[in-house]
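Person: At home tonight, work slowly through the protein below, taking as long as you need, and write a paragraph about the fold.
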Amino acid sequence: MEHKDIERLDRISAHLHALLHNEQPGVLDLTGQQEDEIRQVGEFVNTLTEALSALTNAAHRLSIGDMDVPIIAKLPACHHLKNLQATLRHLTWQTGQVAKGDFSQRVEFLGEFSQSFNWMVEQLEAYRQRILGQNRELERLATTDSLTGVYNRRYFMDYATKEFLRSQRYSHVFSAIQMDIDHFKKINDTHGHAVGDEVLKSFTANCLEVLRESDVLGRIGGEEFSIILPETDLPGALIVAERFRQTIADLKVYADDKIVHFTVSIGLTSVRQDDTGIETVLRRADEALYLAKNGGRNKVVPVN
């Protein structure tokens, strides 16, 4: 073998050594070389060098988050890199779905990472459920009376206002009932506030048994309660109110060794075309309640 051929092979060997040690030697200069087997080896090494350079560049870009980098080098490792690229793309999509609230996403193809990812999603779902539960509890506390469990004044007024606006828009009827437990102060003074609380809870529990699911009962203050009866005219509301009165009159609340009886006075009305707001409707029902109180209590008084 001629000396120049040995030098050519030495350059190819040095080039390969550089590639094996992660250096970037560029490409071999084959200019002017004769077409022989050594030149063919050199051309092959140049092809390998370019392929490895493209593969290295693609792997680097993929490592910094470039999911769209083209992987075109014709090496066996490229197939695995493309699989990794597809996996990362899918994982990126799954992460986006989790960010949108889809906590059903699971990863099953990345070993220990899958376990960590799936645990993270499970924890996020648990936190979400906990927050939803806390929000529901906060909403309940913000809208209900803590003693009786019925709606508080604020929620009742919001609902009543919406029902009035709905009735005006669609020409639907509804009725309003105002109730006041008779001589409630005397019950507290005679038996104590604990018994008074039991009276309030028994009163609301028995009212709820009479009401429909669409009806809304609210505690307005102290022993005063209001009801909205959607899609109910005055005669229908009168039947409901009289059922309330009779149920409460027959009710017994046990206080130690004594039985507490009490009654309720009720005023009611239905919405009219000339009503200007829910306050007008409730004021008219209040006037009817006043008449029931002054008429001897334990009465139902309707007002058109």
